[in-house]
Design goal:
alpha/beta; seven-stranded mixed beta sheet; globular
């Protein structure tokens, strides 16, 4: 078979969406899917949200792109709004999450360089982490499935077990620049950092002059019921990456930093042709318009609690399949019991029950609905999920 025009790096399924409306996707034949995957936590406002759509339409008709060599009224506005609702003093806009990760790595290394400590270039990262697919990002994980065949990788990373504070602290040496960690691991298995772990990393950074980089590409931007997942822990990072929900479906990411952490990022140290262009900034501002409305994040918390409660009630009815619920807010995962395989169950829900979810590591499947769901959508999800569990046949060995 000849190679396909789309490079075949994705195991694309038979679902071929052509239209979206609210929390539903519609395929080429008109079939309907309840979208509790949301583009892997991207479509924060669902599909076709009227405010986001209108803002983008207006911006397309006005100005789509100019070089970052010019002033950016749109970027200045969005950056200030993000600064106002976060720990950060400054923001660099990117086209994706992995670009934000690259910026974060560079920012950390540059910080120690300008402080006269260029040897401090190593970041301590964590097993099962997922920071993206660039060479820098795959170097920051120990997952062989992302690293194999791409060596030599970027040096300067050490790997500790997630939620193992003692193990992480033991890796600190004279070359350590800081820690880079997902506040809640997504692809790795939907595991939230424990308070002792996240707070302990912050304390260690303060004591050793290190930088704490939080990757909140999946868990940030309202996904856990707070604007940022770090707010659950009573700490702030020095640098943080954001993406996915920040553009609501438009390609957009951001690297946030304190003034101190960003002290080395001066003219000529970083850049992006498309990052922060007027169309992207319009999308980002439209998302914030909705997300910062009174009661929005409170409703995410409420719906997250309702969804978790509904799962807790359902799980005992299918005790042979489901083991536990993980995550926070509307970033939930259900761990399956072997020999059931989460990826097979995700396919079964999708193909036979019209429910879209996402597989993750540690035999977990992710439930990542748009942040605008209501109780009717939760009831529909649980109905489809329960029926899927009832009809799911575990393959035999022969």
């Amino acid at each position: 078979m000849p190679i396909t025009p789309l490079m075949p790096v994705y195991p694309r399924c038979a679902v071929r969406p052509v239209r979206g409306e609210g929390v539903y996707l519609y395929g080429e034949r008109g079939e309907q899917y309840l979208d509790f995957a949301a583009g892997i936590a991207v479509n924060a406002l669902g599909h076709g949200h009227p405010h986001l759509t209108k803002v983008l339409q207006d911006q397309v008709a006005t100005l789509m792109h100019v070089s970052n060599l010019y002033g950016s009224p749109q970027g200045e506005v969005l950056a200030q709004r993000i600064v106002d609702v976060s720990f950060a003093d400054t923001v660099f806009f990117t086209n994706s999450g992995v670009e934000a990760v690259e910026c974060a790595i560079k920012t950390a290394r540059r910080y120690h360089f300008v402080n006269g400590n260029p040897q401090r270039h190593k970041l301590i990262t964590f097993k099962n982490a997922f920071h993206g697919r660039s060479l820098g990002a795959i170097s920051a994980t120990d997952q062989a499935k992302m690293r194999d065949g791409f060596e030599p990788l970027l040096p300067g990373f050490a790997y500790a077990k997630f939620n193992d504070l003692e193990g992480a602290l033991a890796l600190i040496d004279d070359e350590t620049a800081g820690f880079m960690v997902e506040t809640v691991q997504g692809e790795g298995g939907m595991t939230a950092g424990t308070p002792e772990f996240i707070q302990g990393l912050r304390k260690a950074c303060d004591e050793h002059g290190l930088l704490l980089i939080l990757d909140e590409i999946q868990c940030g931007y309202g996904r856990t019921g707070k604007m940022w997942a770090y707010e659950h822990y009573g700490i702030t990072p020095d640098i943080m990456t954001a993406a996915k929900g920040i553009g609501g479906g438009f390609p957009l990411g951001a690297c946030l930093a304190t003034e101190e952490a960003a002290k080395g990022m001066v003219i000529g140290t970083h850049g992006s042709t498309y990052g922060g262009n007027p169309l992207a900034m319009a999308a980002g501002s439209a998302i914030l318009d909705v997300m910062l409305e009174d009661g929005f994040l409170g409703n995410v918390t409420k719906m997250g609690e309702r969804l978790r409660q509904a799962f807790e009630q359902m799980i005992p009815n299918h005790d042979h399949l489901f083991e536990e619920i993980r995550g926070k807010g509307l970033m939930l995962g259900i761990k399956m019991k072997e020999p059931a395989v989460s990826r097979d169950f995700v396919a079964h829900l999708r193909d036979n029950h019209g429910l879209l979810t996402v597989a993750a590591g540690e035999n977990v499947f992710r439930v990542l609905p748009p942040l605008v769901i209501n109780e009717d959508h939760i009831a529909e999800c649980v109905e489809r999920l329960s029926e899927g569990a009832r009809t799911f046949g575990i393959p035999s060995d022969d």
